[in-house]
Write a structure and sequence with these properties.
One of its GO terms (molecular function) is N-acylneuraminate cytidylyltransferase activity. Keywords: Hydrolase, Magnesium, Metal-binding. Belongs to the KdsC family. With about 170 residues, the chain is of the alpha/beta class. It has 6 helices and 8 strands, in the order E-E-E-H-E-H-E-H-E-H-E-H-E-H. It has one domain: HAD superfamily/HAD-like (Rossmann fold), CATH 3.40.50.1000. Strand 6, helix 4 and strand 7 form a beta-alpha-beta unit. Helix 1 packs parallel to helix 6.
Length: about 170
């Protein structure tokens, strides 16, 4: 269980590689990564959006397929090609007038470290690097790409009374 007051969470930000997709990826014949997606993550993401949580994707990846996938699920803030995530983090906070303590950031590796130190609640998959685990409030029981988003979003929505309680839960 996440040891944080989840009722005050208004936004959740996810890294992609190693969090929403597995840490090992195949490459296509052009050298582009072929990322995995977790269907249960997808369900939880679209449900969280329907319930008014601000979700964002911040990734160093530059493939537009990332944007297409999360746009389809209703995520309005998909930041690709983020070489310095802290700058995008500040932009995201300003856009929605959020306080850092109202945000969960889910990362797995060193490029996430700086932002995770600012997030009210830092979370990571169980196969995150040791430096990230050390600064995380919550380390999920699942590996990246295996349902980390579902794990975290389900806990947040249950704490806020938004999990499987109305017609929004029964459809895509």
């Amino acid at each position: 269980m996440i040891n944080y007051d989840l009722k005050k969470i208004k936004a959740i930000v996810f890294d992609v590689d190693g969090v929403l997709s597995a840490e090992t990826i195949q490459m296509d014949d052009k050298g582009e990564p072929i990322r995995t997606i977790n269907i249960k993550d997808g369900y939880a993401i679209q449900l969280a959006v329907k319930h008014g949580l601000h979700l964002a994707i911040m990734t160093g990846g530059h493939n537009d397929n990332i944007r297409l996938r999360y746009d389809y699920l209703g995520v309005k803030d998909v930041y690709i090609n983020c070489s310095m995530k802290i700058n995008v983090w500040r932009e995201f906070l300003h856009k929605y007038a959020l306080k850092e303590e109202e945000i969960i950031y889910v990362g797995d590796d060193i490029p996430d470290y700086e932002v995770m130190q600012h997030a009210g609640c830092a979370c990571c998959p169980k196969d995150a690097c040791s430096e990230i685990k050390h600064i995380s409030t919550y380390v999920s029981d699942v590996k990246g790409g295996d349902g980390v988003a579902r794990d975290i979003l389900e806990q947040v929505m249950k704490a806020q009374g938004k999990w499987v309680l109305n017609e929004k839960a029964f459809g895509w």
